[in-house]
Amino acid sequence: MMFDGRIALITGGAGGIGRATAHALAREGATVVLAGRDLTALADAVKEIGSGRADHVAADVTDASSAAQMVETVVARHGGLHVAVNNAGVLGAVGPVADIDAGAWDEVLAVNLTGVFLSMKHEIAHMRGHGGGTIVNVSSNIGTHGRRPALAAYAASKAGVGVLTRTAALDHIADGVRINAVSPGASDTPMSLLPGESREDRAERMRTAAPSGRVAETSEVAAGILWLASDAASHVAGHDLVIDCAATA
Prior knowledge:
By secondary structure, this protein is an alpha/beta fold. It contains 7 helices and 7 strands; from the N terminus they run E-H-E-H-E-H-E-H-E-H-E-H-H-E.
């Protein structure tokens, strides 16, 4: 198993891509710690995976002290941290740039960009002093790779994650910490649903809206994350793996 004996932290681990990644890592031998703000959803995810392979910790990645405590708790409970997947994110403010509320803008950047920075800051601080590790940040194909009307805050935050990932990779590869990103397209999560849209409606829309004719399964995105975090990608750092089946080709 690729991650036998390793401790993995997943922010935003209660649902969607985070939850699928937690399942995949656990199947490959990792002990997974799911972090987030919804304790009920986190506990449900841990139960689904199995308490012997999973744990959860309350964390708000927009808060510096909470992000630090998150990593400290993982290390204290499990003896180390070898893999981190920074997945917590929100769609947030939607609308033309001139109409976006400044507070809504701040919230999107706080979760999607500052949250990744704060999480990485403390993950790296532990890893570089304990033999290294791997980090995968979840970005988006909206941002650096493509844009959509009315999603300026989201696009800007995710483009920032891409640049932050590459810079951090340069800063810390000599410390034994490999840092990469994945940029999924529309996936089978609530974020890909339009207001009032059902999953069936989305499936019909995507038949013509996506080159593949469908959204990605969360397990397909998780597979890319696992590869980047694994020893199979041992010479890959500073990479942004787009998983959108040619949507932004």
